[in-house]
Write a structure and sequence with these properties.
Strand order of the largest sheet: 9-6-3-2-1-12-11-10
Structural class: alpha/beta
CATH class: Alpha Beta
Shape: globular
Radius of gyration: 23 Å
Number of domains: 1
Helix content: 25-40%
Length: 546
């Protein structure tokens, strides 16, 4: 088995959910986040600065091998990281102003002023609009200083622009044009710009030159800070598990710049969209609305766009979780004019041909595994399992799903295969404590008798009482034979429904949870390290792939 999948464990915590690091606002030289060197304030959400370094040190002290995150691209509708306007860009809101002070791109007083009016609720929940406004203003200050003064980062900036020109130029122009059009989707812009006529592109590139420069600068800062953070994590034996959603947002630079790769009409509108058919949980199915790929065109290009996407993601992380993996075997196609998913059909995906191309592009030797985790949840066919197994991808097991039926459930730890990744829950699940308190879920028609039976089975299987349900589930996956075990920080801390990250099918109130300050402390890391050593999952620094 590849060293990436040796027995180990980790925590799931998105960057925006990193805890606030409160204290004085003074800046001193030193490693970001080191006690006594970087005691800073907060502006409403996590980023790649001192709190991220502090979390990496917490993982290291707790003998954890992995830090799993959600997609790090710019957020889209509803602040969702899964509806990003770019599959290649980084989220400018993850750029750390504290590190910009370190680099001489911001004055200390600029930072002090920004954090001086932080409200109590911003420490407990992400206040996206307020945080984004303050962060973007600080980035504009940094850009002006960068433009007006000689700065030792200008050479590195130009190198970054050259190395990433295949996506960066289009992304910057898209971002600038979208702002100019008052955030309207690209298919509602001027028709010449929608059709990408050369004259229109040149005109708008000139018209939005400063805005494009600013976005390129933001992307440079994100890339620089994230790579620095990843390097630091690797030194401490911590790897990063990233995330690739199979589908991209319709309103994205990906679709606008590469319309020929998607099922669109002559006006840039989708003819068919993604989703899943009706099932027990959703009588109308799920209509996601993402445009579908023209896989025949991708195949003709040797999957060049996808290869660049994998390469970019692997510049930022060590392992990739592929969301909705089954779509590479078969995907559900819904006519774009249908309001729900009741009408649709399954179509063949690119299957083995796709993953062979990705493997070859990454220079992997025959038999060497791709650094991929397959999200194979839901109704999965034998053919999907075969595709997963033919390339040696570990699948996912969610212990929360295991108690509603028989002892043969694939989600019960005694049934896990070694080559799998076990979770108490994901970003789409309720927390363990929240799940136990409301097993039925929203809109459920289950009887109270069946709910009580599921709760009783869970406690009997886990050998714990209701007040220890989160630790019981965590122990069950840590003690299993699954190669990797991952627990969301919410479950590590035993938090309830209020700490849930996302409720699929809803638009409001998602993605806003933040880890409370001070909860990931020395006592917690010592407990986690002892717990992890008990089940032989302690991290070894040499396991990190260089």
């Amino acid at each position: 088995m590849d060293s990436l999948f040796r027995r180990a464990s980790g925590l799931l915590l998105h960057v925006s959910s990193l805890p606030a690091r409160l204290g004085s606002h003074s800046h001193r030289d030193g490693q970001p986040g080191t006690d006594g060197q970087w005691a800073i304030g907060d502006i409403g959400s996590g980023d790649a600065g001192p709190s991220a370094y502090e979390f990496v040190r917490f993982l290291h002290a707790g003998e954890q091998r992995w830090w799993q995150i959600l997609p790090t691209g710019p957020v889209g509708y509803g602040w969702s990281p899964y509806q990003s306007p770019s599959s290649f860009a980084g989220n400018p809101l993850f750029v750390s102003p504290a590190l910009l002070v370190r680099d001489g791109l911001l004055r200390q007083e600029d930072w002090d002023s920004a954090v001086s009016d932080t409200r109590e609720e911003e420490v407990q929940r992400v206040q996206f609009c307020r945080s984004a406004s303050r962060r973007m203003e600080l980035l504009r200050m940094a850009f002006r200083k960068f433009e007006q003064q000689r700065h030792d980062l200008k050479g590195a900036f130009e190198e970054f622009r050259h190395a990433h020109s295949h996506w960066l130029d289009e992304h910057c122009l898209f971002t600038a044009c979208k702002a100019f059009h008052n955030d309207q989707p690209w298919y509602e812009w001027d028709s010449s710009l929608v059709r990408r006529e050369p004259g229109a592109l040149a005109h708008w590139a000139d018209k939005t030159r400063i805005a494009c420069e600013f976005e390129a600068f933001n992307q440079f800062l994100f890339d620089r800070q994230w790579r620095e953070l990843r390097s630091y994590a690797a030194e401490l034996g911590v790897g990063i598990i990233g995330d690739i959603p199979i589908f991209v947002s319709m309103d994205s630079s990906d679709v606008w710049a590469c319309q020929e790769l998607f099922e669109l009409d002559q006006h840039g509108r989708p003819t068919v969209v993604a989703g899943v058919p009706p099932d027990y949980f959703a009588v109308d199915g799920q209509r996601w609305g993402n445009p579908l790929y023209r896989w025949d065109v991708h195949r003709e290009t040797g999957y060049a766009w996808w290869i660049r996407r994998f390469q970019r993601t692997l510049q930022l992380c060590d392992l990739i979780r592929i969301d909705h993996f089954r779509g590479f075997e078969s995907y559900y196609e819904i006519p774009a004019d249908r309001p729900d998913a009741r009408v649709g059909s399954w179509k063949p995906g690119p299957r083995h041909d796709f993953f062979r191309a990705i493997s070859q592009s990454l220079g992997l030797a025959p038999g060497q595994e791709l650094p991929v985790i397959a999200e194979d949840l839901g109704f999965i066919t034998r053919e999907v399992h075969q595709l997963r197994d033919d390339f040696g991808f570990p699948g996912m097991r969610i212990v929360q799903f295991g108690f509603g039926g028989q002892a043969t459930s694939i989600d019960l730890p005694h049934n896990y295969p070694v080559h799998s990744v076990a979770y108490t829950g994901t970003h789409d699940n309720d927390t363990v404590v929240g799940w136990y308190r409301s097993v039925a879920g929203e809109g459920s028609t289950r009887t109270q008798e069946s709910i009580d039976a599921e709760k009783e089975y869970a406690l009997r299987y886990l050998g714990c009482g209701p007040d220890q349900i989160h630790l019981g589930m965590m122990r069950s996956i840590w003690s299993s034979v699954a190669a990797l075990s991952i627990v969301p920080v919410q479950d590590l801390l035993g938090l309830g429904e209020d700490a849930r990250m996302n409720r699929p099918g809803t638009c409001d109130g998602n993605w806003v949870w933040r880890c409370p300050p001070g909860h990931l402390n020395r006592l917690q890391s010592e407990w986690l390290a002892a717990f992890t050593r008990t089940y032989g999952r302690q991290a070894c620094p040499e396991h990190i792939a260089k």
